């Protein structure tokens, strides 16, 4: 049995691959970069006795989930673990955003995640106990001015994960939504965070720490895993405030990351 990890070539996905391999899971790794996947496979197999298959795939493209599923089945591989990690954001006013980029974000962060989960669902139930880990965000709980589409996609991931966790509970399949805050992962560069000095001053957790936490909570069958005490406090406090106030606070924080 394999665990499929999307977006495995960098950041949290890369570190999750190490966590799963370290704990004896055979892996199917996918990302856009063949070179990075081959390197990761080589490094993992130097350290751990696990079988690893790699598939190069751009999951932001329509029908890519179906293509990946078909290729995995053609190799005769079965899974009892699914990690939907691939995703990206964009720090920009919605009015000034690139619509095609926003639609690619929705395709990757929402549509592909949903498709892969559905395509592998019968298999995950058949090979239970099975584990699904969907990488959400603390953004899942908040409105996100200047990252409106990204925050909305992560709200979907949280709601979707929480709902199907309940549906699948009596079928021995757990679904965990991992909700990290800002993390040292390369996400900031891809999302166009221009204020690098601010990012350097803030001590964000490493991708490794988040991956360790995410793996642990997934194996424990937790439905929602919020990384870090400060993030848990922040989410609790925002629930006590009017949503309009929370939106203004997020807007102010995002503007600092732009300038």
Short recap of the structure:
With 259 residues, the chain is an alpha/beta fold. Helices cover 52% and strands 15% of the residues.
List the helices and strands and how they pair.
Elements: E1 2-6, H1 11-22, E2 26-31, H2 34-47, E3 52-56, H3 64-74, E4 79-84, H4 99-126, E5 130-135, H5 148-168, E6 173-179, H6 187-190, H7 196-201, H8 207-219, E7 224-226, H9 229-238, H10 243-258
Parallel strand pairs: 1-2, 1-4, 2-3, 4-5, 5-6, 6-7
Helix pairs in contact: 1-8, 3-4, 4-5
Structural class: alpha/beta
Task: Please give the order of strands in the largest beta sheet.
Answer: 3-2-1-4-5-6-7
Please name the fourth-level CATH homologous superfamily. NAD(P)-binding Rossmann-like Domain
CATH class categorisation: Alpha Beta
Strand content: 5-15%
Average pLDDT number: 93
The CATH topology: Rossmann fold
Continuous helix count: 10
Helical content band: 40-55%
Query: What can be said about the biggest beta sheet?
Result: 7 strands, parallel
Please give the alpha-carbon distance between the first and last residues.
47 Å
Low-confidence stretches: none
């Amino acid at each position: 049995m394999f665990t499929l990890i999307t977006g495995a070539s960098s950041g949290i996905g890369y570190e999750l691959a190490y966590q799963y391999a370290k704990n004896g899971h055979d892996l199917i790794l996918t990302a856009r970069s063949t070179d990075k996947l081959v390197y990761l496979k080589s490094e993992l197999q130097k350290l751990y006795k696990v079988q690893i298959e790699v598939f190069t795939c751009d999951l932001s493209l329509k029908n890519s989930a179906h293509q990946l599923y078909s290729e995995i089945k053609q190799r005769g591989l079965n899974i009892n673990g699914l990690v939907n990690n691939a995703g990206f954001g964009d720090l920009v006013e919605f009015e000034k955003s690139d619509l095609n980029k926003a639609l690619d974000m929705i395709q990757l962060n929402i549509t592909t995640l949903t498709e892969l989960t559905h395509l592998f669902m019968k298999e995950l139930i058949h090979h239970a106990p099975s584990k699904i880990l969907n990488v959400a965000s603390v953004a899942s709980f908040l409105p996100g001015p200047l990252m409106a589409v990204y925050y909305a996609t992560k709200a979907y991931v949280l709601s979707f994960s929480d709902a199907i966790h309940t549906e699948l509970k009596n079928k021995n399949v757990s679904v965990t939504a991992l909700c990290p805050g800002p993390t040292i992962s390369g996400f900031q560069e891809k999302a166009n965070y221009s204020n690098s000095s601010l990012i350097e001053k803030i001590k964000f957790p490493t991708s490794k720490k988040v991956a360790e936490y995410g793996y642990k909570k997934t194996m424990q069958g937790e439905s929602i895993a919020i990384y870090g005490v400060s993030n848990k406090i922040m989410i609790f406090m925002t629930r006590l405030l009017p949503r309009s106030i929370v939106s203004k606070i997020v807007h102010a924080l995002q503007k600092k990351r732009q300038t």
